[in-house]
Amino acid sequence: HPSSTLKCPRWQEGVHHVYHVPFLGHRVALIVQILGMTRVQVQRGTRTLTEISRSGIGWTAMPLFLNHTLPYVIDGQFQLPVYLGTVPLSLSEDIERMGCEEALLEHQRRKTAVLVPAASVLVRVVDLQRGPTSAGLLAGDGTPNPVPPN
Question: Pseudo-torsion of CA 114, 78, 25, 144, nearest 10°?
């Protein structure tokens, strides 16, 4: 359906700013959980209420720093694969232990990370400390562009 949140997501929370991320090299990652939200009509006595039902659709992860020695944030736009379901509980510990890419490969091997066929998510990371040099992702006033550049 064209108005499905799976095909036409609506980001109502806006841009998220994360400050003071510690540099731990390749052992720091951004984990994104993708939730589907459905409005459900519920009867309470004589009143009909609308509640929101959330379900885990998928998740993805990516490293945040270039490598284990350079403290530079990987900024830009990334089309990442989507894994089915909810984030495995051990993922953050595995990333801290072996790095993001190795942890994802390990979870695929264990079948706790199953790729959703033909699905991906666009993630934009902006290092605000770099200012206007941040891969064209900042507007003239230094805030993140709401629309990806062409």
Answer: -130
Decide: 97 and 136 in contact? Cβ < 8 Å: no
Please give the span between the terminal C-alpha atoms of the chain, in angstroms, as a whole number.
28
Task: Assess contact for 32 and 121: CB atoms under 8 A.
Answer: yes
Write the pLDDT tens digit of every residue in 17-49.
Answer: 666 766 667 688 999 998 888 888 889 899 998
Q: What is the pTM of this model?
A: 0.68
Q: 52 with 37: CB under 8 angstroms?
A: yes
CA 150 centroid distance within chain: 21
* Cα 71 from Cα 15, distance rounded (Å): 23
CA angle, 97 then 66 then 148, to 5° = 120
With a cut of 50, list the residues of the chain below it in pLDDT. Answer: 1-2, 5, 148-150
